[in-house]
Amino acid sequence: MPIARTAIVSAMQEELAAVLALAGDLEVHEHAGRRFHRGELQGEPVVLVLCGIGKVAAATTATLLAERHGADRLVFTGVAGGLGEGVCIGDAVLATELVQHDMDARPLFPRYEVPLTGRSHFPACATLNAELAQATRTVLDRPAHWGDEAIALGVRTPRLHHGLVLSGDRFVSTREESAALRTALPAALAVEMEGAALAQVCHDLGLPFAVLRTISDRADDTAHLDFGRFIQAVAAQASAAIIDTWLKAAPRRRAVLRDGRR
Ligand code: SAH
To answer: Phi/psi class of residue 38: alpha, beta or left (left: φ > 0; alpha: ψ in -120 to 50)?
Structure first.
């Protein structure tokens, strides 16, 4: 059985590259069309991987991380469309809970409920969220991050939000679609394509997880514009810096060192 590791799951190649650049030597394990990078980041055993897009890709990735790579907690980083009022481009969203907005097995089960689980909302780990929130605030407060490119892309003074995140196998890119989601699930802050699937797997396996998203668009008719540029210039840099800052201060590592010295 491999040693317990923190899994960092990146939605985009550029994000993975930014996290990989921070780590030292990593072993690469190729399997199921994915490259799992194992090693250490800030002294913490990690496994880093590109997720792929959509709920099935996320569920497969989460399962493999837990079952083959010793992941005992998972942190997903990626971009998302903002739905909530005041959730702006460049802001960060930490999911407190996640719902599959395209799950609908009515009339057999209530709308959004994952059949046979009795639930529609899958909660993220409060402890991980608290640690990541601290790291996120530290990074967002560093004005040096927000260069001309970020400003040209519409990033102003990014804020951190906590709340409901929706996932579904659809890139939400019309005003009608995002309005419908807002009406159906008014608490939703953001919409993306993977988080709730990862949440369901972690729930089944009893693993703590967190989903951290940078808002790349407002899930409307302009959502596809500048997508790649935004990931490169803003999201990849922000998520790598947050992960690095978080692991640097990781209480888990400090606890181990403290116990080791005793
Ligand atoms: N159309 C884009 C990529 C689509 S995939 C392109 O041209 O490359 C979008 C990825 O970003 C997914 O991983 C998803 O989780 C996230 N995402 C960002 N904004 C989104 C939105 N408005 N709706 C759904 N997913 C979004």
So the answer is: beta
Residue 12 CA: nearest ligand 1 atom is 13
Strand (E) or helix (H) holding 139: helix 126-140
| Parts of the chain with a pLDDT under 50 | 258, 260-262
Alpha helices in 168-218 (DSSP H): 175-184, 195-205
Residues contacting ligand 1 via CB (< 6 Å) = 11, 53, 78-81, 171-173, 191-194, 216-217, 219, 223-224, 227
d(CA 65, CA 48): 9
The tens digit of pLDDT for each residue in 133-149 reads 999 999 998 866 667 88
Q: Which of 181, 177, 139, 180 is nearest to 164 (CA)?
A: 181
Q: How far is the CA of 120 from the centre of ligand 1 (A)?
A: 22
Q: What is the rounded CA–CA span in Å between residue 161 and residue 12?
A: 21
Q: Which domains does the chain have, with CATH numbers?
A: 5-238 (3.40.50.1580)
Could you identify the atom of ligand 1 that is nearest to the CA of residue 168? 24
**Cβ atoms of 99 and 121 closer than 8 Å:** yes
Backbone phi and psi for residue 146, each to the nearest 5 degrees, phi listed first: -100, 80
Per the listing, tokens 């919409």 go with 191
